Amino acid sequence: MRLSTRLSTPVLSAAVGLGLTAAVLGAVxxxxxxxxxxxxxxxxxxxxxxxxxxxxxxxxxxxxxxxAEKRAANPKAAAxxxxxxxxxxxxFSAEIARSTQIWNSxxxxxxxxxxxxxxxxxxxxxxxxGSYASTDGHGSGYIFLxxxxxxxxxxTRVTAHETGHVxxxxxxxxxxxxxxxxxxxPGTSCTNANPNAAERARVDQLWVNGLAKALAKxxxxx
Length: 222
Prior knowledge:
Order of helices and strands: HHEHEEEEHHH
Radius of gyration: 22 Å
Strand content: 5-15%
């Protein structure tokens, strides 16, 4: 994706005026010269922090608990399905659909599916933290997709990366572009939106062992 930079009319007029003054007076004083523009700071959501790691883990646990409760109520269900609702992120419907397709073709022990009674939701908007996965404090998880970050980074990669947290994967920003959970670590030129072999295997492992433990706890609490 591209991050466009626009020059507003007032700024353009000021620049033209400054140029004319320079032509008349012969030089522009150093104090009047435009200050250099600093490069945009990376989004906090793609830097990682202890708080973010805890939020990602809490998100996975919330989704796992939600799925386990449904499975316990319907033990004959043929597959483990994580249901999502993307109605609050209409601008990213194509990226969410593509991300779902990528993950469903990559792992076998869990599937993502759009529907009601969702285990997590997608949201969109502006946030200085960038895109992130978290819980709403009431036992449910959500993925927030930030507009500006999705202009700077490949949007399908961002969406697939954040969806990886739903399935239990942590961030690993020092990884290569071929590693989906390296997020923005490899830079904005990285457009890979597919998990590598290790990430795929880890998700399958989590949804066999993790769901079994969650189911056991749900049944025990009943």
